[in-house]
Design goal:
With 290 residues, this protein is mostly helical. It has a single domain, classed as Triphosphoribosyl-dephospho-CoA protein, CATH 1.10.4200.10. The protein is built from 13 helices and no strands. α11 runs antiparallel to α12. The longest helix is centred in the C-terminal third of the chain and has 24 residues. It binds ligand LTSJ6FE6 and adenine. The site of adenine has 14 residues, from α1 and α13. Keywords: ATP-binding, Glycosyltransferase, Nucleotide-binding, Transferase. It catalyses: 3'-dephospho-CoA + ATP = 2'-(5''-triphospho-alpha-D-ribosyl)-3'-dephospho-CoA + adenine. GO terms for molecular function: ATP binding; glycosyltransferase activity; triphosphoribosyl-dephospho-CoA synthase activity.
Length: 290
């Protein structure tokens, strides 16, 4: 008789890591995304493809579980927790680069989802805004061991154009997610857009407002302006579920490819939106809004 394998319920930290990885896989699979890797192909990237995005996402499970577990042990926002998360984040980046043979697939996602996984553990049962606020408090603490890299793409364009990047997005409580991605996801669902279209609309809402340092790095201010205006045009035409919106979305995709631009920061924040959506109870829709 075959031996019975005892089934153990996953811990809270393991469940959070499951959700974080699933959010990354769902983001990668979502199609058609302008300029980004999706089920159709590699978008504006020559060194990325869908299989690599999936492998990268799976490689991050131990890092997310360890970050959530560190938050469980510490139990509150503290300098010690911030420093532990910094080390775990750097270890996660190293593992990602090992699995992708040196290609940066998810640096921004490790930062955003790592902080949110830890915060979700600290704020169990809280709203998305409550979790994001706790992640922001962690992000605002300085990590003295963090290597300051003034040459990262983000650091360079933030200096050059005087904009805020991934660090500030977290320190301010992920406004792109809380004020744009999540409300649009819920509004498009309520309007009957269908799940994939609602997720595309959430991505577009993020793109319409974000200073995405990936786009700035590859395509400058003109690229950023065209990304934001193009995303807004899709939503104003009726979103991804409408024929007119789809037409605008095709134009935006062509434009991003012509500019060699890819909104990798917005993609990470869509993953953060999907993570919080699965996790946090949403406030009921205002009366008369459905
Ligand atoms: C604080 C850090 C986030 C470092 O930030 P910094 O800006 O210095 O560094 P970057 O290396 O540029 O990484 C930032 C990544 O964040 C994403 N992003 C961009 N804009 C925003 C935004 N406005 N808000 C939020 N997030 C944003 C983006 O990630 C995605 O793009 C990646 C690909 O980027 P890149 O390599 O530039 O791409 P290519 O164009 O393809 O390169 P080439 O082909 O042209 O060469 C991809 O990974 C996506 O994820 C930015 O890249 C933080 O990382 C940090 O300090 N970490 C240390 C560890 C730590 O403390 N962790 C804490 C606990 S988790
Ligand atoms: N789908 C995607 N394509 C390119 N870069 C990304 N960074 C995060 N998700 C991405």
């Amino acid at each position: 008789m075959s031996a019975l394998i005892a089934r153990q319920a996953p811990s809270a930290a393991e469940r959070l890591a499951d959700l974080a990885v699933q959010a990354l896989v769902d983001e990668a699979d979502l199609s058609p995304k302008p300029g980004l890797v999706d089920r159709r192909g590699s978008g504006a990237h020559s060194d990325l493809h869908l299989g690599l995005m999936h492998a990268s996402a799976q490689s991050l499970w131990p890092a997310f579980a360890a970050m959530a577990d560190a938050a469980r042990s510490e139990g509150r926002v503290s300098q010690a927790l911030r420093e532990t998360l910094g080390q775990l984040g750097r270890d996660g980046e190293a593992e990602m680069l090992r699995v992708t043979a040196g290609v940066n697939t998810h640096r921004g996602a490790i930062w955003a989802l790592g902080l949110l996984s830890a915060a979700a553990m600290l704020e169990s049962g809280a709203s998305a805004g409550g979790i994001a606020a706790s992640a922001a408090a962690l992000a605002r603490l300085d990590d003295p061991a963090a290597p300051h890299n003034p040459d990262s793409h983000g650091a360079r364009v933030c200096r050059r154009y005087g904009v805020l990047g991934a660090r500030e997005q977290a320190q301010h409580g992920f406004p792109a997610v809380i004020e744009h991605g999540l409300p649009q996801l819920l509004a498009s669902r309520r309007a009957g857009a269908g799940e994939q279209n609602a997720r595309l609309d959430a991505l577009l809402a993020i793109m319409s407002s974000l200073t995405d340092t990936c786009v700035l790095h590859r395509a400058g201010l003109e690229g950023l302006t065209r990304m934001q205006a193009g995303a807004r045009a899709v939503l104003e035409a009726g979103g991804a579920a409408s024929l007119a919106g789809r037409r605008q979305l095709r134009l935006l995709d062509r434009d991003m490819l012509a500019l060699n631009a890819s909104p990798g920061g917005a993609a990470d924040l869509l993953a953060a939106t999907l993570f919080l959506d699965r996790l946090a109870p949403h406030a009921p829709a205002p009366t008369g809004s459905n």
